[in-house]
Amino acid sequence: MIGENMEQSGHSNHVLLLSEWQALLHQTPPTVHDILTGLGDEEIRHLVNVFYDYMLSHHESELFLSTEQVSTRLSHSMFQWLRSVLGSARQDLSQLLEKQREIGIIHARIGLPIDLVARGARKLKNELYQVLQAKETIPAALLSEIICFSSLAMDTAIEAMTVSYSPTYQNSMQAQEQYRLLSIYDDVNVERERQISALTSWENQFIYNIATGLPAADLIPLAKSEFGMWFSHKGKHLLGNPNMLANMDTLIKQADEHITQALTPALSPVAESRMAVLQAIRQLTGQIHRLLASMFDALVELENGKDPLTQLLNRRFIPTIMRREISLALNVRKPFILAMLDIDHFKKINDNYGHSAGDITLKTVATVIYDHFRSSDYVFRYGGEEFMVLLVESDLTQAKIILEALRQKIAALSIEVSPTQHFSVTVSIGFVDFDYHPDYKRLIDKADRALYAAKDHGRNRIEAHPR
Fold this sequence. Notes:
single chain; 467 residues; Globin-like; Alpha-Beta Plaits; five-stranded mixed beta sheet; two-stranded antiparallel ribbon; 68% helix; flat; Globin/Proto; iron; GTP binding
């Protein structure tokens, strides 16, 4: 439901921005578009150089920019961006907006602060004004219209980035917080039992007070109970399903409204009224128990970060872990290696021996992979028969030795599916060293290409991505 709402919101924003950008183009004199599309390559390159000189001078940008990246790739991308936005009268606006959406997702993926984007845009606008003002042939009134259009066009492009940036960044931060909390809550089941016990204890105390006719003033509201306080301050962060959280809030509020009713002097002495409150509370706490169990079940099932078959980390926390390791690597300039592993001809195992044999193979190979690496490294089940490994503070030379030893270790395995059935397996491995680019998806794609190269070259081998 949340994903659908975000998708609908994104589509609505796209339609709105498209119509407003089209209106901006139509109300702007053609001469303005002619001058902006007619800016020379040297003038655009000047804007790009000023932009990156300015951004590289700020410490906050160091994590996301390097002189090498600017010279080899980013300058060209910024050149194309300026050409397309300033020359939007000659562009397919729908495609241009889609490109801004993609840029926003990349910015969110690498954790680029939105204020740095705004800072860079401000510098670009100011420098463009200086470039245009230097053209003495442009009348003041026309110059004003050019500045107005170019500023609004840049603002619209950046707004389109922000529309996709915000939910993507929010999701990544939510996953990061859940990962942090789950590292604190070593055993979710223990926490579940603790809170069920706290809720039950409050319920029993409430029933006892009502049944024995103790003063209603002694009743503790559910929101102020041990369970209520935990839910308010910790549970809402740990149990991150918004719909379930809203339902829980409603149930707690309804319970406390009944308690307030029991505290009413005119009603509290009346046995029938107290019994009605008791029945209502028992019904509500029953619902709370069931909802709490569902929330913890969802947490264990979806958010514990472990693949249920192999007990390796699943893909959910790859963005969180990759961003953190990239940040560390950039700060201390220590390399790391990303490797993708795939069990060769896995489909034949399922076809020849059955899916239970496939599961045994996955668990066996996963155990070997996990045991092969250091406790500081990360091992994920990436999907199907594919695994991902992040070797921290390692270089290509070390990785070749470690990964080749792993390949040989797996090739020597004998998978037993019955006393009379054994078979061997092999893996293909592709790996890449960190190139100091902040977008982790680029690195995963490189490792994946290296994996496919290993398969194309005959399988049961390791292959490094070329630098």
